Amino acid sequence: MRSNATSDWTAKQSVRAKLRVLVNRILRSCGYWPDKQWQATATVLEPAELRREAWA
User: Crossing angle, helix 13-29 and helix 37-50, to 10 degrees?
Assistant: First the structure.
């Protein structure tokens, strides 16, 4: 996730959508329940947003 985060990833919806797709692919490959993926994706992206300044 860190390697795919750009400096403006929190401002651009297209970049955020790309990150959500990547997280969903990882969850699907690990056998995560499809109906719970939206919640897991939010759980992953929320702390990433808090760490955005350190990653940029």
Answer: 130
Q: How far is CA 28 from CA 7, 9, 13, 46, in A?
A: 27, 23, 22, 19
Say whether pTM exceeds 0.70: no
The answer to whether the CB of 28 falls within 8 A of the CB of 37 is yes
Tens of pLDDT, residues 1-20: 555 555 565 667 887 888 88
Distances (CA, A) of 54 to 4, 5, 35, 51: 14, 11, 32, 6
Cα 21–chain centre separation: 7
